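[09:14] KT: can someone run the structure on this one? pasting the chain below
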Amino acid sequence: MILLLTNRSSGYANSVHFNEHSESIINILSTDESVLYIKNAVFEEIIDPNVRVDNEAFAAIDKIDFVNGNPDDILMEAKNGGKLVYDGQHGQKSTSENEESVGDTDNKTQSEDSNVALEKLNSLIGLDKVKKQVKEFINLNIINQKRKEQGLQVVNTSMHSLFLGNPGTGKTTVARIIGDVLYQKQVISRPDVIEVSRADLVAEYVGQTASKTREVLKSALGGILFIDEAYTLSNGGENDFGREAIDEILKFMEDNRDDIMIIFAGYPKEMRKFLKMNSGLKSRIPNVFDFEDYTADEIVRIGLFDLKKRNYTVNELYYEKALKDYYDKENDHSNGRWIRNVNEKIMKAQALRLAESDNISIDLLQEITQDDINQVVNKDLEINSADDAYAKLNSLIGLEKVKQQVSKFINMSVINNKRKEQGLATSAVSLHSLFLGNPGTGKTTVARIMGQILFQKGVIRKPELVEVSRTDLVAEYVGQTAPKTRDVLESALGGVLFIDEAYTLSSGGGNDFGREAIDEILKFMEDHRDDIVIIFAGYTKEMDQFLKMNSGLKSRIPNVFDFEDYTADEVVQIGLFDLSKRQYILENEDTYSEVVKDSYESTNDHSNGRWIRNVNEKLIAIQAERLASSPNDMNDIDMLKTITEEDLLKFNE
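[09:31] RB: done, structure tokens below
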């Protein structure tokens, strides 16, 4: 195999094994300003050269192994401004176009070591904001150390830091790189990063946590302590031992501020709550690093690099298209972990396919096919197509005006999404909507279908509809409504949130907590306008009043769908369909139609579909009472299914 990097690309590999080939080909080639870092390279043959770094590229290899001899025999070259650093157990060896060896002073070795670590940082995919923050942080601490060595006053800054981000965004990796650089620059006295979590700090019994935490802190003196999911220390309430650990950490941070760097890592939302639980935390942790989620493009690059590292080959263009679409739909915000898990599933699909073959060559073992990818990316997705969802919408009885509105809404959303994908300007179209109408007019059903179509068309990334009402959003006590509402909103991210009888959020007066829920919804709508569809549903009159109670609501909900009451004929159709679905037949459909229409036109109940279902329930009860008095009919399957004209005539008695 050959490991090739071109066109300013970057790569990282933990371990790469290069087998013998019938033709002598370069094993590693980094060119055109690319950056490559390899922890361990294993070779089975000598090639002239095994490694080439060309045209301003950079490559660093921590350790080289040669299966058939001395690692020093492996041939490496750097030319045309390329730089190669080899830092293994046999000493350092670096060559450029006109050099075969380098000086061996300690200062130069340390400088090159720190450069290797920084190049490793640069080679990480994505994380542009973090890379900038890390370089500024490192430079400040290096200058501080130099001023201290010269007896000058230093900038009064602490190294303690917050690493905020979802899982799989490289927090631990970046912490290790910071440790390497700060050690090489003599800012800290040991390079290793001590990684711990709550279980390593908190004991099970009273009085044991402080000493357990203190021992961990002492073990990291002179270096870096990385506390993963640090917010869990404050999750257990007032009597939880985690607070004892926090108190011990705070004291240690103050007593040893120049001899330890503590990194508190975790999800942004939970970590901000964590900081609030102790006023001393925020003031002692001045450095905040924001690890943003990877983009779809970055996820694909990580996935391709992961497959290459495992010696798999794949059609990269197909992989990119399939995985980008899948990521947009299925993204669980675990980033690097997500794509590695997806790759594991693809490799499993390949293995299961090959298990049925008799002759399996090395090429087949390495090749991942389009079918292998499809086995994973199509799994667990909605199997109905957008056409099926449209057919379901059109099959609904009545709702002609709503069907036209939905079709226009979908078309506009799809075109806007396509323009965005092509980098074209898009109109500021919000997907948030009002569903106005009496109960039983199909608002929830249409919302579900609309969500399926938007998902199939790639406008939203999840087909699920989250249905809530006031009780799911509003809490009973002061301060609890905002987080309760926010949790519901976050659960619907990527899909559709349907708030039924939304007007009840504003019906409780000036001191009602419902207004707090509305404020939280408004903020969330603005912050996530492209990643959630919120549908506010309710009666037309009450919803008009709801919109008037906050000026921000109407401007943020531009789409209005009017669900009109069903006509008498439509109610009859719904009733007939409902009975058929329940496996009932009518002795006389004309009589059923007359009874239903007469009752519908005389009723004040405007619950539409619910009304006719209640009518059918009453008819079924009348039939059951008749059958109960006739044992012979009870054993006749046809009679069990039939609603007679006699049953219908009893309806209005």
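[09:33] KT: thanks! The chain has 27 helices and 23 strands.
[09:34] RB: yep, looked fine to me
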